[in-house]
């Protein structure tokens, strides 16, 4: 049965430059969609992006357009300026239509953003190992 699920993700961007921001955000979105078996824009309800205040080179939403998802509603916002927070981070919250159970949803943390949720990053790595060894009961 198809239901609505929320998927989280984050990536630490290499540099606050337009091309780096777009490429890294596109990589995050593509990985979130792939790991959650999203096959097209009809399965995406919306994506909310936030960026740490030190990122000002562009809008993460432009990366969604770059991936050909022009009809997906997207919004961008700035994260709270918390002292000592991980710098140069783009986060996303995507709402999707899926057959995945809540426990099967793959939240994606890339590069330095793994430090934000090491528990979820470890689970994702374990799931990848299981898939590589032919287990079919993995999201």
TrEMBL record:
Kindly list the GO molecular function terms attached to this UniProt entry.
chorismate mutase activity
Q: Which reaction does it catalyse?
A: chorismate = prephenate
Enzyme's top EC category: isomerase
Q: Which Pfam families match?
A: CM_1 (PF07736)
Q: Does the keyword Isomerase apply?
A: yes
Q: Which residues form a coiled coil?
A: none
Q: List the InterPro entries.
A: Chorismate_mutase_AroH, RutC-like_sf
E.C. no: 5.4.99.5
**Keyword Transcription: yes or no?**
no
SUPFAM superfamilies membership: YjgF-like
User: What keywords does the record list, in alphabetical order?
Assistant: Amino-acid biosynthesis, Aromatic amino acid biosynthesis, Isomerase
Residue ranges spanning the membrane: these are: none
Q: Which NCBIfam families match?
A: CM_mono_aroH
Know the name of this protein? chorismate mutase
């Amino acid at each position: 049965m198809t239901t609505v699920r929320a998927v989280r993700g984050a990536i630490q961007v290499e540099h606050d430059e337009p091309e780096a921001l777009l490429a890294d955000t596109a990589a995050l979105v593509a990985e979130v969609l792939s790991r959650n078996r999203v096959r097209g824009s009809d399965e995406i309800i919306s994506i909310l992006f936030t960026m740490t205040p030190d990122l000002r080179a562009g809008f993460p939403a432009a990366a969604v357009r770059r991936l050909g998802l022009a009809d997906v509603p997207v919004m961008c916002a700035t994260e709270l300026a918390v002292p000592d927070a991980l710098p140069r981070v783009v986060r996303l919250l995507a709402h999707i239509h899926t057959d995945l159970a809540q426990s099967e949803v793959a939240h994606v943390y890339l590069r330095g953003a793994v430090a934000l949720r090491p528990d979820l990053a470890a689970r994702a790595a374990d799931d990848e190992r299981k898939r590589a060894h032919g287990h079919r009961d993995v999201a």
